[in-house]
Amino acid sequence: MNTMRITFLGLVCSVLMLPAAFAGTLDTVKSQGFFNCGVSQGVPGFSNPDENGNWSGIDVDVCRAVSAAIFGDPDKVKYVPLTAKERFTALQAGEIDVLSRNTTWTLSRDAQIGLEFAGVNFYDGQGFMVRKDSGISSAMELDGASVCTNLGTTTELNMADFFRANSMAYEPVVFEKADEVVNAYDEGRCDTYTTDKSGLAAQRTKLADPDAHVVLPETISKEPLGPVVREGDGDWADVVRWSLNAMIEAEEFGLTQSNAKTECALTSNPVVARLCGKEGGTGAGLNLGDSWSYDIVTMVGNYGDVYEKHVGENTPVGLARAGSPNASYKNGGVLYAPPAR
Amino acid sequence: METDKSKIGTFIFNRSVQGAFYQLITLGLVALGIYYIVTNTARNMLERGLASGFHFLGVESQFDIGMTLIEYSPTSTYFDSFIVGLLNTLLVAGIGILFATIIGFTVGIMRLSSNWLIAKIAETYVEILRNIPLLLQIFFWYFAVLRALPKPKQSLELYDSFFLNNRGLFIPDTVFGEGSSIIFYLLWLTIIISIGIFIWAKRRQNRTGERFPAFYVSIALILGTFLISLAATGFPVSFEYPELKGFNFKGGVKLIPELVALTFALAMYTASFIAEVVRGGIMAVSKGQTEAAKSVGLKQNLILRLIIIPQALRVIVPPLTNQYLNLTKNSSLAAAIAYPDLVLVFAGTALMQTGQAIEIIGMVMGVYLFLSLFTSLIMNLFNRFMKVDGER
Questions:
Q1: B371 and B274 within one domain
Q2: What 3-state class would DSSP assign to A172?
Q3: Pairing between strand A145-150 and B156-158?
Q4: Residue numbers in B near A176 (CB within 8 A)
Q5: Cβ-defined contact of B74 to A20 (cutoff 8 Å)
Q6: Is the same domain home to B151 and B299?
Q7: pLDDT of residue A306
Q8: Rounded Cα–Cα distance for residues B126 and B271 (Å)
Q9: If you compute the radius of gyration of chain A from its CA atoms, what whole number of angstroms results?
Q10: Chain B residues near residue A161 by CB distance under 8 angstroms
């Protein structure tokens, strides 16, 4: 942890030492041939490394989409695993260019901390997980409970709000790293573990006996999670924002990773033709090649492809999309991208 | 003209003038560097829309803290959270230093024992503990403690008043009722009188050589007065017992497992270094001192107390100070196991919620600097006090 503190101070110092004026992130990224993407230290389905150190997950795929859009290659990304506590400083200090680490969009972060949110790639809400044998069936029965959670998250504030609003007492037990939270909860230090519900589903796969735990029905907060960039660099923010939007719009118009090649050859729909890079010259405004959105869809996939691959019902995380806010607006969800034209 | 030139020459080539010149240049460069860093930081922060200043200290924090020594709630300010974190750091450092000193001195003296087994036990202790990274030891004690302890409903209990489970150790709280303040006044009074007795006894011994059992007399005085005053005021003291309510115990005093594991790990680890410092200090006292003391007929425990330890302490105190400073700074590892110390609460949660890294890290660094300097000051004063007259 001493190394942690040293890196942290290093980060602060690098904010101090940064040159007064610096080139736009997009130009820098293009000339160096890669960019740095801040991810979690391991949340299955969102950003998680395998045994060979290859990262995967829906947060990782946002960075892969940005890479595909800029370089026509989804793997020109260096992943930087960060704790919740380190993430914003790393972004401000220029250590990473995109933060894609299940980060909640809030007013204070947007306005006060010098961050710019590029969109929402997962609509989440905070929930509680308990042991099945505790017999608890509602979050309203948690009066007096010990609650394990992560440092430096909106979770910490939401649980304070929740227990205060319902005049219940509790004991917060706050860890710096997600793995330590899971470990302590598993060892019985806490009665309940609280974080975003997607996080609960993901972390549950790491417990000794995942079936002995249950997520309570209450959702106590809104947690729109999405990629973040530094404030004050609009061109770069646009690239990240539209890479995400292209994935969402491709799904809306039925353009998937598997059918994109044939669809693009045959299509007569102008929206699809634009996404395929055949019409409209959408790349120019973003300072990208016109095939940027086609590359995203063929190399990374559309939003639905990515969702089902990493967190859908057939994955260990197993989050049903139908009926959740993450469904397309056409299916009763809130996923809605502005038109890419 | 000729003389003027040589005057200027002697001035330029004068050593102290040259020295001052270079010092002035260095000072100027440092000042320029600081000015650059400050203005550049301010501009960068402004450009990126980062808030700055210390206004946030007066804003409601809106988060909770697991262990607080003062009243604290989400409606308290960020400054309150700073104080809570600071007190928790002081608590763990204080208890840690106390136990590290006791264990360290014991083990250090054990290592010098002529008994082979005792010496080897002490050596093993030192070699194992000082060679394993502290963070691993903290994790080990924390998760070892958690795994070994039962759930609240199966708590280990003692006389229905002490409870131990994986949520912590719960002990009865003493509640002092009305009329108990007189007891404390008397307690303080007897402590002051005892100090007086010690000074008087020492002076008398220096003057006449007669010894007075100051220690036993003081203990009898303090305890006796305390008990008599308790009885006289009709025992205005009651106990609040912890009770199992819902998930956890309520009432009484609670020691959370994070505090126990952290203090334990810090004390055990630092003690292994202190043991070596103590051993070195004692070995630095030449054997002739012991022999001389024996030859004038002093008993073994008096040799240790009057001859060896006072001389050894002069060698021990400076490196001991370093160990105390290390322990205080190492207590910031608390963040790893959820003990709400200054780093976790203020440089962690508060920093994340406000985003004001420079101000907060600056304050935290200031606190550790102050604690370290303060500890050094106390130890230096102690060292001066221990110095033998006429020594360097």
A1: yes
A2: strand
A3: unpaired
A4: 335-336, 344, 348
A5: no
A6: yes
A7: 95
A8: 8
A9: 21
A10: 62, 74
Residues A255-269 have a mean pLDDT of 91
Same domain, A173 and A203: yes
- B349 and A191: CB-CB below 8 Å? no
Residue B257 has pLDDT above 60, yes or no: yes
How confident is the model over B78-92, as a mean pLDDT? Answer: 94
The residue of chain A with its CA nearest to that of B49 is A114
Computed over every residue of chain A, the mean pLDDT equals 88
Both A255 and A323 in a single domain?
Answer: yes
Q: Is the pLDDT of residue B289 over 60?
A: yes
Cα B386 to Cα B318, B375, B381, distances in angstroms = 12, 16, 9
φ/ψ (deg, to 5) at B169? -105, 125
Residue A337 falls within a domain, yes or no? no
Residue A17 C-alpha, separation from nearest chain B C-alpha, in angstroms: 7
User: Kind and range of the H or E element at B200?
Assistant: helix B181-208
Q: Do B137 and B260 fall into the same domain?
A: yes
For the purposes of burial, counting CB atoms within 10 Å of the CB of A193, is it exposed (0-12), middle (13-18) or buried (19 or more)? buried
Residues B12 and B155 in one domain: no
Strands (DSSP E) contained in chain A are: 35-39, 48-49, 55-56, 77-81, 98-104, 115-117, 122-124, 126-131, 145-150, 170-175, 192-196, 213-215, 223-230
Q: Give yes or no: residues A102 and A242 share one domain.
A: yes
Answer whether A152 sits within 8 Å of B351, measured CB to CB: yes
Question: DSSP assignment, residue B153?
Answer: G
Same domain, B20 and B168: no
Compute CA B3 distance to the chain's CA centroid, rounded to the nearest angstrom: 66
Instruction: Give the C-alpha separation, B136 to B132, whole Å.
Output: 7
Q: Kindly report the average pLDDT of chain B as a whole number.
A: 86
Residue A16 to residue B358, Cβ atoms within 8 A: yes
CA B282 – CA B313 distance, rounded (Å): 8
A17 or B25, greater pLDDT: B25
Tokens of B285: 């006292």
B204: which residues sit within 8 A by CB, 6+ positions away?
Answer: B210, B212
Residues with Cβ within 8 Å of A41's Cβ and at least 6 positions away in sequence, in order, are A81, A82, A83, A177, A178, A179
Look at residue B214 and tell me if it is in a domain. no
Q: Are A163 and A42 in a shared domain?
A: no
In tens, the pLDDT along B220-237 reads 888 888 888 877 777 777
Q: How far apart are CA A270 and CA A279, in angstroms?
A: 7
**3-state per-residue secondary structure call for A100-119:** EEEEECCHHHHHHECEEECC
Output the pLDDT for position B391: 54
| Domain enclosing residue A31, as ranges | 2-123+224-331
Interface touch B64/A160, C-beta < 8 Å:
yes
Residue B36 and residue B144 share a domain: no
pLDDT band at B92 (very low <50, low <70, confident <90, very high): very high
pLDDT at B392 over 70: no
Q: What is the pLDDT of residue A19?
A: 46
| pTM for the predicted model, two decimal places | 0.80
Q: Which residue in chain B has the smallest CA separation from A231?
A: B48
pLDDT at A21 over 70: no
